[in-house]
Design brief:
Chain A: Pathway: Cofactor biosynthesis; thiamine diphosphate biosynthesis. The structure holds two protein chains of two kinds. Chain A is built from ten helices and 16 strands. By secondary structure, chain A is of the alpha/beta class. In chain A, β15 and β16 form a beta hairpin. In chain A, α1 crosses α9 and α4 crosses α9. Chain B starts with a strand and ends in a 22-residue tail after the last helix. In chain B, the strands form three sheets. Chain B has a five-stranded parallel beta sheet with strand order 5-4-3-10-9. A three-stranded parallel beta sheet of chain B has the order 6-7-8. In chain B, strands 1-2 form a two-stranded antiparallel ribbon. Helices cover 41% and strands 15% of the residues of chain B. Chain B is an alpha/beta fold. In chain B, α1 runs parallel beside α10 and α4 crosses α5. In chain B, β3, α1 and β4 form a beta-alpha-beta unit. The chains are: A alpha/beta, B alpha/beta. At the A-B interface, β10 of A face α1, α2 and α3 of B.
Amino acid sequence: MKVLIRGAGVTGLTLAHELSSRGADVTVVDSRRQIAGNASWQAGGMLAPWCERESAEEAVLTLGRGAADWWDAALPGHVMRNGTLVVAAARDVAELDRFGRRTSGYRAIDAGAIAALEPDLDGSFVSALFFNEEAHLDPRQALLGLQQKLARMGVRFEFGYGAVHSPSADVEADCTGITGQLTGLRGVRGEMLILRTSEVTLARPVRLLHPRIPVYVVPRSGNLFMVGATMIESDAAGPITARSVMELLNAAYALHPAFGEAELVETGTGIRPAFTDNLPRVEREGNTIRINGLYRHGFLLAPAMAVKAAAMILGTETEKERADEAHH
Amino acid sequence: MLELYGQQIPSRLLLGTALYPSPAIMAEAIKASGADIVTVSLRRETSGGKTGGKFWSLIQSLGVRVLPNTAGCHSVKEAVTTAKMAREVFATIWIKLEVIGNHDTLQPDVFGLVEAARILAADGFEVFPYTTDDLVVAGRLLDAGCKVLMPWCAPIGSARGPQNLDALRSLRGHFPDVPLIVDAGIGRPSHAATVMELGYDAVLLNTAVAKASDPVAMACAFGKAVEAGRQAFRAGPLEPRDMAVPSTPVIGMAAFS
């Protein structure tokens, strides 16, 4: 079976992996000249279904809880299973209670336990929530690693202008995110920045709850920290605004004062594709499959969506899956 | 029926459109609340109105009246510019005017508010000023051309409920014919019912619904509370007494001694 996948973001690449490892002949095309710069490139890379459940529906937890295993199997060595730490300033501890009431999969910990997990946060917070089962990865390393692996598996890639002329295929899979222009799809702008400092060490993503500007800081190799992310109802792709930089930096500084001395090495903007319920969809129309609407859960939900779409494409979906699909 | 700048409005609950888990839940919550007016922030929800965008189309599809706001503006100039942009983007002369004076408490800058209200009213806007419960400021806003007042009952998003009932009563007493809408600080349906029982004309809220565990159910609860409070006000509630008064007549009771 020949499959043409449009879009080399996390959705397209995870689908390519699912299909190629089941013997399909896969070509991935993308109108960009390289992977860098798409929405997935700007992602946090948190595999945190319980934390996300706080503001998302149950489906995000059920579809996302297998994500860390999927990434671990596909790209051994990329997934860091250190959990997630959720903290709040002393004056905002009510936010911790509220967060905890809306999800599960954590234990409430005190200052001593916080210091044991993250020595650099010793003395900064009196209580926190620790989501032991969660994981994270570096999304850029993961995208590039997956692309290299897929190329070794025989998947062809075409980037840039050449990608406009697409080879013939039995099935086309549209994984083009916000550029897909699907009915009902909207853009939710996210802005992030990357700081570099050797003064702070974190083992895991830390989420700082704040009634106005909740943010997360995700540690990456090379003394880098990704700070994200704004959520603005807009598909305007322009550069990050001064206000967003101020808010993100303020929050990072509140987490650890040493971030005030960090180098601001990059700012980025991505447009998350979302349907009105903020849940992802796999749809079939003739011999075209569309996977879209992964919203702020690209790395978390792409594996489950890829498995689903691959089953539809290869005709291996179960009767139950067919019936479920009919309900949508 | 509630009348705001000559428009008849069936529902006395106004809802904001920020902070919901998803636009689908927001749409359901608005329907469940029965609100006829929703507020929309030009800045945070349309990125300066540059794109128009899908979120705006979704709000338009709900068939409710839109009250754009100048949320996040800290100066007269900023608020006036934002109001003019909102007039173009949302095609309405209604504007909820916010001029923030303190970053921490989001307390209105009432001096800037009066000035901005005067400029906008003279420019043909129908201004809904977000103000404190200060009586004198309220008078100045009316002088500036406002025909509706929106006093806070507590700081924005604080969910504290009415902090100064005497001030709210005093405003109602002094301006019996001006539509008064409590804007900001409502946390629970009982807070909304309380201010409606005082004779307030309507309630505007956002966080209390959007950040509830079940926003749709909470929107429904607020709709009922606002209606109950209004009906109670019209029915004439009893004033508190210092003495117990038996609800069963005592005269004519048999005496067993």
